[in-house]
Amino acid sequence: MPERTPLIAGNWKMYKTQGEARALAREIRQGVPAGVRAEVMVAPPYTALAAVAGELEGSPIRLAGQDTFWEKQGAYTGAISPVMLADLGCHYVIVGHSERRQHFGDTNQTVNRKLLAVLEAGVVPILCIGETLEERQAEKTLHVVAEQLKEGLAGLPGDARERPVIAYEPVWAIGTGLTATPQQAQEVHAFIRSLLRELLHEAAETTLILYGGSVTPDNAASLLSEPDIDGALVGGASLKADSFLKIIAAAG
Ligand code: 13P
Hints:
alpha/beta; binds 1,3-dihydroxyacetonephosphate; globular; 10 helices; eight-stranded parallel beta barrel; TIM Barrel
């Protein structure tokens, strides 16, 4: 089986002023043990990206944007482009987070435009997909996830330098304290990988599929031990260095 280096990603959402973000980044930087197997990433709010970039300079911890618009520049008041995020040192940009879909009108089509624009800027998109509780109860999970994945990845250039990362985040598990069991998550991750084999062929074996939704130091190790769970996208537990560092340690 190909080796996939786990990615432990912290999504800080709409938390942390510049000063708070700087302090958290410093604690994480100081706490990540040398030689840790996982890659570590943090996604502060836009307003703290520059501050955190400064704090992480020279460290292997990666920076990410939480969202983006798809145009490079233009009269789009309030928007931020992938080029601007690349310029700030972002290695990753999250697209299609369920909170963007729920509160800001993102659709599979707009998420796809964002994903392609991120790739064009030479940055790695993290495509979030996942079903709602209603969809799971109606046994539509695999259908919803397949549609989000296929439509989100539509038009992916065969020769793209950077490969997207996929994050499976069941909406009912986000911020609720309800986590998918390792078996529930693995079932969907294996399904996603089988779809990726159709879409990306051999690149599916090296594509990272992260799990997100109430990941904590207590459940991280068992989730990460599943064969198709290649890392975690962590919300609440990434806002404190102590819990985030424990999750990093759980990745080996
Ligand atoms: P929580 O870890 O707070 O459930 O958030 C998950 C998430 O949305 C990460 O993007």
